[in-house]
Amino acid sequence: MQYEIKRGHKFFPKKTWEKVLNFLARTDEPTPYLLMDSDLIRQSCQKIGRGIKNSKVFYAMKANPDIEVVKFIMQQGLSFEIASEGELSVLRMLNVGPDRIISSNPVKSPSFIREAYSYGVRLFAFDSEHEIEKLRILAPESELYVRVSVPNEGSEWPLSKKFGVEPDRAVSLLLLAAERGLNPVGITFHVGSQCMNIYNWSTAIDKVLGVWRKVESEGIKLRVLNIGGGYPIRYTREVVDIESIEKMINETIFSQFPEDIEVHIEPGRAVVGEAGVFITRVIGKATRSDENWLYIDVGVFNGLMESIGGIKYTMIVGSRAKPKRWIVAGPSCDSFDVIARDVLLPEPNIGDYLLIPSAGAYTISYASEFNGFPIPKTVLI
């Protein structure tokens, strides 16, 4: 194996790259699998929220729900955002207290509401009168925060279509929640996952400010502003850093909102994304219509689903051969299982490793066993 640390992933610290290569040298673990660097996760946990006053960080479990990863994040002091009984069951096994759990899914199943409320969770998002009615019956006297729709331009994975309401509607819903005996406490929004436009946050905060003021003029005291997630990570290029994003968020919030406001942050990708590297092997090569095809043992269906939505991964092989342009595809017999096109790589041999850095988020959590291929194992190192 001819990998050189200096030729590895330019965004991976040398220490992380050494840990990955040392693991490969001593393991017989069958591929594919996902390595997660605990040092990088710890650094992210320590960094996120540091630049925003009165902030509390809730890790979005959907990004990577592996129990060992979640346990490690819990040990760093983060709280959790969940949407299902499955996610709650992981936290229950780890004895995470209900005061460290919120649910920002605006549309929840009745069974999940029942179970979360029974466990002691009391903070829920909503964006419709139907959700108010479910919560009134199944989670009486809970604390609610309404989701407002905000621009997602500049985000590589927009989230603005399925959830959220406009300001006037948000005001009406918060007032209705109070009438129904629930406790409206705040507002939430999401600028989109992998947000590359730093101004999305200031635009969103300005938009929800009117809702906040209108509701308080009606006699309802709010205290929580949940800014969702969206912090970007480095895949193939540099992105705006967390410190710059949080500096702007902090200045925007505290120049307009009350000094005692609670700011909730829900990072997922930013906590675990850069900490992961997929370990795969080349299983086939072919030339079709003058195009070079490279097949690996992980694909769209069992780990790299975000590639079809525009996320572009770096790929690394140990070959010293002359670089060629490749179409990289997964192992299934479905022609939809194409990970990337026009990838410049030295030609590897069948059986060689192909490494995919920055793969810690939204990979295993999306994976299925389509076509009988297993969901890759996660290993915390």
* Biggest sheet character: 8 strands, mixed
The average pLDDT is 94
Count all strands and give the number: 18
Helix content: 25-40%
Shape: elongated
Terminus-to-terminus distance: 20 Å
Can you offer a commentary on this structure?
- The chain has helices spanning 14-26, 38-47, 67-75, 85-93, 110-119, 129-138, 167-179, 199-217, 242-254, 269-272, and strands at residues 33-36, 55-60, 79-81, 101-102, 123-126, 143-147, 155-157, 183-188, 193-195, 224-226, 262-265, 276-288, 291-296, 316-317, 323-329, 338-346, 353-357, 377-380.
- The mean pLDDT is 94.
- The longest helix is centred in the middle third of the chain and has 19 residues, at 199-217.
- Helix 7 packs across helix 8 (199-217) and helix 8 (199-217) runs parallel beside helix 9 (242-254).
- The protein is 29% helix and 23% strand.
- It is built from ten helices and 18 strands.
- The strands form three sheets. Strands 1, 12, 13, 14, 15, 16, 17 and 18 form an eight-stranded mixed β-sheet that branches. Strands 4-3-2-11-10-8-6-5 form an eight-stranded parallel β-sheet.
- It has 381 residues and is of the alpha/beta class.
List the helices and strands and how they pair.
Elements (H helix, E strand, L loop, with lengths): L13 H13 L6 E4 L1 H10 L7 E6 L6 H9 L3 E3 L3 H9 L7 E2 L7 H10 L3 E4 L2 H10 L4 E5 L7 E3 L9 H13 L3 E6 L4 E3 L3 H19 L6 E3 L15 H13 L7 E4 L3 H4 L3 E13 L2 E6 L19 E2 L5 E7 L8 E9 L6 E5 L19 E4 L1
Parallel strand pairs: 1-18, 2-3, 2-11, 3-4, 5-6, 6-8, 8-10, 10-11, 13-15
Antiparallel strand pairs: 1-12, 7-9, 12-13, 12-17, 14-17, 15-16
Helix pairs in contact: 7-8, 8-9
